[in-house]
Design brief:
- The structure holds three protein chains of three kinds.
- Chain A has one domain.
- In chain A, about 70% of the residues lie in helices and about 0% in strands.
- Chain A contains 16 helices and four strands.
- Chain A has helices at about 5-15, 15-35, 50-75, 80-100, 115-120, 135-160, 165-180, 210-235, 235-245, 250-255, 260-285, 295-305, 310-330, 335-350, 355-360, 370-375, and strands at about 195, 200, 205, 285.
- In chain A, strands 1-4 form a two-stranded antiparallel ribbon. Chain A has a two-stranded antiparallel sheet with strand order 2-3.
- In chain B, strand 18 (about 415) and strand 19 (about 420-425) form a beta hairpin.
- Chain B contains twelve helices and 19 strands.
- Chain B is α/β, with parallel strands linked by helices.
- Chain B has a domain at about 150-260: Rossmann fold.
- The N and C termini of chain B lie far apart (about 55 Å).
- Chain C is mainly α.
- Chain C is built from 20 helices and seven strands.
- In chain C, the strands form two sheets. In chain C, strands 4-3-2-1-5 form a five-stranded antiparallel beta sheet. Chain C has a two-stranded antiparallel ribbon with strand order 6-7.
- The longest helix of chain C has about 50 residues, at about 240-290.
- Chain C is extended and about 125 Å long.
- Classes of the chains: A mainly alpha, B alpha/beta, C mainly alpha.
């Protein structure tokens, strides 16, 4: 067998989908800042800060979609609670940003955020210590969603909770977290969440430049996550993961530790979602418990399905497309946009079971069950399903 | 690759649509942004306000527009989603370049758009009663501050009804928390014993009120006159009142004074068991003045339904719109900085016979009415303040607020601490 | 002769005059009290609320025969004055928001024509006044022939036990025939005696009240055993104090027992709502493997059907809900069948695709309802036979609407079981879900059965909507609030198992209600969710897991 690097090189050469995707991403990351900075505001081609923030948001969602595609499209675990991991990462970043406000808050308290002063709290709760350091916040962004996923997944996979049962208990998880974070007594800002951020790492969050930089960083993170995910799925482990999706019992009988594979894919995907959330907060300017809502997780799954699951770039494209459609419809048809969005979902599910990517790459035919069960031949083409 | 053509076509379409979202607007009208949820949980309350502003715009256009130009409404739907509020606000200000925005309902939505308005220097008229603790340079608050609703209501219960025991029942979010904090401080200052005050919070959309109402009944049977001060949020009120009716808690025994229940919320409930329960607002549809009657008539014609009710946030939207028009006429331009300079001191008549004047803290003067629910879903006014009450952004009953004042005319600050002589919080310029 | 006739004539005249004057005298006397009555009534027009209270007292003291009718009209908001001539009138009972009101004269209580409501202004009462009116009217009610009115009057008078009321009650108890009313008067008098200066009277009162279950009695007895700020007991007599303490303890113990039953009932009623919303889903999900995200919207459609039926049957508030039940079932079932035939049919065997497609359908249905009915809440009236409480005793009252919903849930569940077990359609449904190929080989039209099953599940969702319309808001977001809970119940009980959904729903409701007084509503819900997550770890397929080969792929 050729060494892993060689396989990867071969994959990249023949992987047109990835090439397109990374190319488009590079274009966005380079062209948009130019259009914002160099082109004068009166021109039709100028991209306003609003546009930058919007695309940045889409890219964060694309990272989240990658995370969901990894465990669903490739591993067959439908998690309807990924909003929880996204929001936990977002809250970790939010806590750092709140600490950065310092004495510039409404009540002028140098240590306590405004909502704590308002609740008459005298000191910072223990779980807020350390969040005034950026590296600590970064550490927590990875640690908190990761450890929750580890604990949850370890118990769930060990007990062989699968299929719809697993999906529903992930929903229960995110619903419970939502109720908990809505409580004002929890120390996370309650219903209002965290808002009113001033700066990040010393840079003013309200300046256009910073939004531009954040956009570029997000694009970079998306590219990096994509490459890492691609590496995972085209490796040997990736084959096992796909085998688990297609025939779990058979894989277990072949001797693979199914639970371990599932667990670390789940944890990795949760961490990725957390990072997406962390990038989301500085660009949006607010984090609030309704991000935990079960409906958000379902929407994420919809993005992946619309885009084309089991192809990483499909998930990202789906996230971009659906959110763009939502932005467009809520402005163009504010009274009836739900019809359009609902119709989109129904039509895509019925006629494009492989998503938009399936349409674009010319493979609209439905796969029969025997085809899916066939273990793919040794082929370097990772996009072959 | 049969679909190659389709692929290219799709890509082109996407690019065109993409840029159409990003593209600029150029026109000879004055654009007015309407930022209210038209779907989702808040649509119940906010759709009416969107229609009110559309009605006011149509009316103004009939009078010839403003500064010689027609007014154009730009309606967006932030779908009760708080990040979407910020996004839509940015879209209205940067892409559509609106001159003013009428919008928001919940405090979260307002807080999420606040940084956008302050950064892009927009102007927002906020028409809903809220908890105070804020005064922004770019917002005019035409809804009631706690001293224009909660305090007079509690004073009424204490003095006119003789209430001695209090249940403060709220939904768990900032508005009830702040209001109850202020009310608790107020009650304790008036000599009410701590064991005669019971404060309780329930989550949003709470619908199983059996146990809670039974507990209220128990608290209220201690012999002293009891009242419930309810800051329960919109949706949860219907099952709450239904349960009150079913457990036979009549208004004569334990009156419930609500701050978020108006004519519109009552139109969705069977009001017969609720007769006599109270609400405190700055406006009731049943108030008999020529201005109010004309407004109701206009509304029924516009919405093509003679059964639709009017309510306090609608009056606040009406006041806000008229204040803005007057200010623009005074300033001679829609430029936000100039309009903001002219707004404090501008006044316009409200619908109940008095004047609404903009104060330096960006609140307005409002009268306070206490009403009892009638069997037909309207309110009987049983008490009112002798004149109008000026809105206070920072409550004098809270120890954290007592040194803070808001003044955008002389001090140019929304939270100026008189003791330390510093200005902190939300000001970016 | 002439003189005789003249004298006769004078006598006649005198006689006539006498008669006239006799009838005139009462007329005169009557009209002066009438006049006073009218004057007092007229003062109500512009009086402040405090003054109105004094005037009511005056009117009650006057003893005029129409006082009772006038005060009853006042408390029921039917007392008006005409704008033109400022005269007071009573409006006849009936449609209060009708444009024209039939008027009664306040003195004679006879018809006095009608007037449009624009020309009339109502005389306002506030809560305090209504309370005063109720206690005043209670005195009249004490001698009513109807025992329930007498009971209500005693209860009203209890709220205000002044000298006069106590006297009236003492007079009444000796002639009272109805045992319930008699008992109520005895406790009222005993409550009053608790404040008497005679220790023996107090002791007697305590022993009378020992058997009571009322909260206010308990409060008074407990107050007697407390210490006042200076250290001495409120109740100075040792014997009385000990008797009061013992009585209080007994009452507390018994009340706690009933309170437990009440909590259990709360749990059952919450659970029955959960069961109702879940069993429809259990059928579509368990039997057909379809994850129906539009289930909440089907419930919403059932609720709106109830509203439409009510609007279409004005004046028949009592029966409209009974008509709404089959109507909601049919409408929801038809929409369900439509969804199945157009969308779900192509997605069998792919449950996760059905999730996505039905999510789109739910958005469309929500928007559809929003466009037709607007986003505002719609009011669905509770019929009279479903409102109010069933007072089992002073410590335990059960609201009728919740009771009927529990019964309704059990009936629906039973009906469903019967349909599945004993009808042809049920047989076909079970056959298709167990082994589709074999069922088709036996001649069963499986597509038709699929549509019927989905329709059945949707129809039950519609029935759940009817129940929900009685409990909560009817607006386009109704479905969203309940969809998560319904999935949790189905998974907890075991997918496809109806008894699982029943047990699961009921237990979740009971646990939630048990925890609520201790932990608060939010924490109770969180605890239930965490318990569910942990439970699934232990039993990964729910309470009653499906067995057999067919369960492998679920």
């Amino acid at each position: 067998m050729p060494p892993r690097q060689y396989t990867l090189w071969i994959s990249a050469r023949k992987d047109t989908g990835s090439a397109w995707f990374l190319g488009a991403l590079a274009v966005v990351a380079i062209v948009m800042p130019i259009l914002n900075l160099a082109v004068p505001a009166s021109s039709a081609l100028h991209v306003s800060t609003y546009g930058l923030t919007l695309v940045g948001k889409y890219l964060c969602y694309a990272v989240l979609a990658l995370a969901v595609d990894l465990i669903w499209g490739y591993c067959g675990i439908l998690s309807l609670g990924h909003a929880a991991f996204f929001s936990l990462g977002a809250y970790a970043m939010g806590m750092y940003l709140m600490r950065q406000i310092g004495p510039r808050g409404v009540y002028g308290d140098p240590i306590l955020p405004d909502f704590m002063v308002f609740l008459n709290w005298k000191s910072l709760p223990w779980f807020w210590y350390g969040f005034n350091h950026f590296w600590f916040a970064l550490f927590m962004i990875v640690l908190v969603p990761g450890s929750l996923a580890l604990a949850f997944g370890w118990f769930a996979f060990r007990s062989r909770v699968t299929g719809v049962y697993f999906s529903i208990i992930t929903q229960a998880l995110t619903y419970a977290l939502m109720l908990a974070f809505f409580r004002n007594d929890m120390g996370f800002g309650g219903n209002n969440g965290f808002t009113d951020f001033k700066d990040i790492l010393g840079f003013d969050l309200h300046s256009d430049r910073v939004h531009l930089v954040l956009l570029v960083i997000t694009a970079g993170v998306l590219a990096a996550s994509y490459l890492v995910c691609r590496m995972i799925v085209s490796s040997r482990a990736g084959r096992v993961i796909r085998a688990i999706r297609d025939a779990e019992s058979r894989t277990r009988f072949l001797g693979y530790r199914v639970e371990s594979y599932k667990l670390w894919v789940f944890v990795f995907s949760a961490v990725l979602a957390g990072i997406a959330g962390a990038l989301y907060v500085p660009q949006i300017g607010i984090i609030n418990p309704s991000e935990f809502a079960p409906i958000n997780s379902i929407e994420t799954v919809i993005w992946v399905a619309v885009g084309g699951r089991g192809t990483l770039y499909g998930a990202a494209a789906g996230a971009l497309l659906v959110n763009y459609a939502k932005t467009y419809f809520t402005s163009a048809f504010p009274e009836i946009w739900n019809y359009a969005l609902g119709a989109l979902f129904v039509l895509v599910t019925l006629f494009l079971p492989r998503g938009i990517i399936g349409l674009v790459s010319g493979r609209v035919k439905k796969q029969t069950k025997t085809e899916r069960l066939r273990i793919p031949a040794e082929s370097p083409e990772p996009s072959e399903e | 690759m049969r679909y190659k053509g389709m692929r290219t076509a799709g890509l082109m379409l996407a690019i065109v649509m993409f840029f159409s979202v990003m593209a600029k607007a150029q026109d000879e009208t004055i654009k007015i942004g309407i930022l209210h949820s038209l779907s989702g949980t808040m649509a119940i309350s906010e759709t009416t306000l969107k229609d009110t502003i559309l009605m006011m715009i149509a009316e103004q256009n009939k009078k010839g527009g403003l500064l010689g130009k027609k007014l154009e409404a730009v309606v967006v739907d932030p779908a009760s989603n708080w990040p979407l509020f910020a996004e839509k606000a940015q879209e209205l200000l940067e892409k559509d370049k609106v001159a003013v925005v009428f919008g928001c309902w919940t405090s979260v939505s307002r807080k999420s758009v606040l940084p956008v308005f302050e950064k892009d220097d927009g102007l927002l008229f906020y028409p809903v009663q809220y908890e105070g603790e804020e005064s922004s340079k770019n917002v005019i608050y035409t809804g009631a501050a706690p001293n224009q609703q909660a305090i007079p209501a509690v004073e009424y219960l204490m003095n006119e009804v003789g209430v001695k025991r209090w249940v403060l029942e709220g939904t768990d979010y900032v508005y009830p928390r702040t209001t109850n904090k202020i009310l608790e401080a107020f009650l304790l200052a008036k000599g009410v014993k701590p064991e005669d005050i019971s404060i309780n919070y329930t989550p949003f959309g709470y619908s199983d009120w059996q146990a809670r109402v039974a507990a209220i009944k128990k608290f209220g049977s201690a012999g002293k006159k009891n009242a419930v001060v309810s800051t329960i949020n919109g949706d949860a009120n219907v099952p709450f009142y239904k349960e009150l009716g079913n457990q036979k808690i009549s208004a004569e025994d334990i009156p419930v004074m609500a701050f978020s229940v108006g004519e519109e919320e009552l139109s969705g409930v069977d009001t017969k068991p609720l007769v006599g329960h109270l609400a405190a607002w700055n406006y009731f549809e049943s108030i008999n003045t020529p201005a109010n009657k004309a407004f109701i008539q206009q509304w029924h014609t516009f919405i093509k339904n003679p059964k639709r009710t009017t309510n306090d946030p609608m009056e606040a939207s009406y006041i806000g719109f008229n204040l803005w028009v007057k200010a623009v006429q005074k300033a001679g331009t829609t430029d936000v900085e100039k309009v903001l300079a002219v707004l404090p001191g501008t006044e316009t008549p409200n619908l109940t016979g008095s004047m609404a004047k903009v104060l330096p803290n960006h609140h307005i003067t409002k009268p306070v009415y206490i009403g009892e629910i009638r069997a037909d879903g309207q309110f009987d006014v049983v008490w009112k303040t002798p004149g109008t009450v000026p809105g206070e952004a920072w409550s004098r009953y809270l120890p954290s607020d007592k040194d803070i004042t808001a003044d955008w005319v002389t001090l140019k600050c929304g939270n100026y601490n008189k003791a330390t002589k510093t200005c902190s919080g939300q000001n970016y310029k | 002769m002439k003189k005789h006739f003249l004298w006769l004539g004078v006598q006649w005249l005198f006689f006539l005059l006498l008669c006239a004057s006799r009838s005139a005298f009462p007329l005169y006397a009557q009209s002066s009290s009438d006049a006073n009555f009218l004057v007092s009534l007229g003062q109500l027009r512009d009086a402040s609320f405090d003054d109105k209270e004094k005037i009511i007292d005056q009117l009650a003291q006057s003893g005029h025969p129409s006082v009772r009718a006038v005060l009853t009209a006042f408390v029921e908001d039917r007392l008006y004055y005409r704008n033109q001539d400022q005269k007071i009138f009573i409006a006849r009972q009936g449609a209060e928001d009708a444009p024209t009101l039939n008027l009664l004269d306040p003195i004679t209580l006879k018809g006095a024509g009608s007037a449009s409501s624009d020309n009339l202004s109502r005389i306002l009462a506030n809560n305090h006044l209504r309370r005063v009116l109720q206690t005043t009217l209670a005195r009249y009610g004490l001698s009513s022939p109807d025992a329930s009115i007498r009971l209500e009057s005693v209860q009203d008078m209890e709220k205000d036990l002044d000298e006069e009321n106590v006297q009236l009650l003492r007079q009444r108890i000796s002639v009272e025939t109805d045992p319930a009313v008699k008992k109520e008067i005895a406790s009222a008098l005993a409550l009053d005696s608790l404040g008497s200066s005679d220790a023996q009277a107090r002791l007697a009162a305590v022993s009378t009240l020992r058997g009571s279950l009322r909260q206010d009695v308990l409060n008074k007895l407990e107050a007697m055993t407390e210490k006042s700020p200076d250290g001495s007991f409120v109740e100075v007599n040792e014997q009385v104090r000990q008797a009061a303490a013992a009585a209080a303890k007994s009452i507390t113990r018994r009340r706690a027992f009933y309170s437990g039953i009440e909590t259990l009932f709360f749990g059952l009623s919450l659970g029955s709502v959960l069961v109702l919303i879940a069993i429809g889903l259990a059928i579509t999900f368990g039997v057909m493997g379809v994850i129906n995200m539009a289930h909440g919207e089907l419930m919403m459609i059932g609720a709106y059907t109830t509203y439409v039926v009510q609007v279409a049957m004005p004046g028949h508030g009592e029966t409209s809900i009974l008509v709404a039940i089959p109507a909601a079932f049919l409408v929801a079932a038809l929409i369900g069948i439509l969804i199945e035939r157009t969308i779900i049919r192509f997605l069998y065997g792919r449950p996760l695709e059905t999730l996505l497609a039905t999510f789109g359908v739910s958005l469309i249905l929500q928007q559809l309802v929003r466009s037709i009915f607007t986003a505002l809440n719609r009011s669905v009236e509770t019929p009279a036979w479903m409102s109010g409480t069933l007072q089992l005793n002073d410590a335990l009252s059960i609201t009728y609407n919740r009771l009927y919903i529990v019964i309704f849930t059990l009936l629906v569940f039973a009906a469903l079981l019967v349909v599945l077990k004993y009808t042809r359609m049920g047989l076909e449904i079970r056959a298709v879900s167990q082994n589709r190929a074999m069922a088709k080989a036996m001649g069963i039209r499986s597509e038709w059965v699929d549509a019927m099953t989905f329709g059945l599940g949707s129809g039950i969702a519609g029935l759940a909507g009817v129940a929900l319309s009685q409990l909560t808001n009817v607006n386009p977001n109704l479905g969203q609030s309940y969809i998560i809970d319904s999935f949790l119940v189905v998974v907890f009980g075991g997918v496809g198992n109806l008894w699982g959904s029943m047990t699961g729903g009921m237990s979740m409701g009971i646990v939630n209600e048990l925890l609520e007084p201790y932990a608060g509503a939010v924490l109770a819900k969180i605890f239930v969710l965490i318990a569910l997550i942990l439970f699934i770890q232990v039993r990964p397929r729910g309470l009653f897991p499906p067995t057999g080969r067919a369960s492998e792929n679920q």
